[in-house]
Amino acid sequence: MEARLVQQWFDAHAGAVLLYARQWLERAGAEDVVQEVFVRLMGQKSAPENVRAWLFAAGRNAAIDALRSSTSRVGRERRAAVARSEEWFEARTEDLIDAATAQEALAGLAMEQREVIVMRIWGEMTLAEIGAVMGEAVSTVFSRYQSGLKALRQKMESACGRKTR
Amino acid sequence: MRQENSINDGDGAEDAEHRLEPGERELAAALGGLRPVAPGEAARGWAIAASVDAAVAGRLGMERRRVIFWRAAAAVLAVGLGLAMVIRPGTREVERVVEKVVFLPGSAGGGENRAVAIDGGGGEQWIIDGGRAGESGGIVALTQSLWGGPDGVASSGRGGRAASTGRAVTYLALRDQALRRGVDSIGATGAMASGAGGGRALTPFSTSLNDEIPAAASPSREPWYVDYLIPLTGGRL
Hints:
The structure holds two protein chains of two kinds.
Chain A lengths: L2 H19 L5 H17 L7 H18 L4 H13 L13 H9 L3 H12 L4 H8 L3 H27 L1
Helix pairs in contact in A: 1-2, 1-3, 2-3, 3-7, 5-8, 6-8, 7-8
Chain B lengths: L1 H7 L7 H4 L2 H11 L12 H42 L7 E10 L2 H4 L5 E7 L2 E6 L9 E9 L12 H22 L22 E2 L18 E8 L6
Parallel strand pairs in B: 2-5
Antiparallel strand pairs in B: 1-4, 1-6, 2-3, 3-4
């Protein structure tokens, strides 16, 4: 695989893949996953048909494997707590939503809802692509997406209400 | 129900965004404005791996080029050797001049100021110089000219011994004839007169060495020999 192409894909998708991997892992572990995914991409003889879907699928497998390989449940929980304290998004003044509030609300969702929302919104994937990565039907993906957004909205409204009070 | 059906069928699946409630769409759009944190240096290890791969590939390429170079060099050498075998350099032509000087008694020399050339066959030519007979009490110089063959010297190579033997016989016969009967006795059919003014033109002729040679005075001294090589003009040594 040409390094120039991989660099382009890294610039385009690495942030979203990192955010996706962080749904399971702390930052360091997620960055390891991103590195592993792109090293594997470099090793491909030809470019995948759908690079973006390939990256998320590979990232999902690598993140789940890394999570399973953790020897200590206590350590895993501690790392998850650390992960929540780390920023998932860049804090910018022009954003319509507070990044920390969004992160907190997102972290409070069910895992399957988070996966769909991250891939749909930041990965800019179609429902069909998401369904292929997760091995789910498109209707299932849509329902998770919709329910996840509802839950997010409720969480963020309640968070805003707490802040205004 | 209609919405579920259209998504199940895949028809209008990408219209799912429009099937959301307005608040959910706005939330999705607002979330989309958030930019995920960019990966740090740790996630860029693939680039290092890529660089290593590129370096390894480059090294392999360099080794491959080196192998190709040496193969080409070996091929050129082989071709050169083959051409050298096919196109062998021209034979080295040298003239081997063996000057055998025989001291004669003054009477035997005869004092003739003449030289004779005798074609001894096989590329050898004997020159008997009677002009020097008057010097130092009589000298007959027997000069043998041998044209080099493929191996450079006529006497070497296959049959060299036989040629040498033949030449020795020729020399001995000529010497005996010169000693016994004088230089004038040689070259009854091909003798040449000495040229005027010191330069002597040599005319090849043949002589019969089997002629009966009458007895003559014995040489006063043993002959001595000078054996040297003269490279021909344009020849290669």
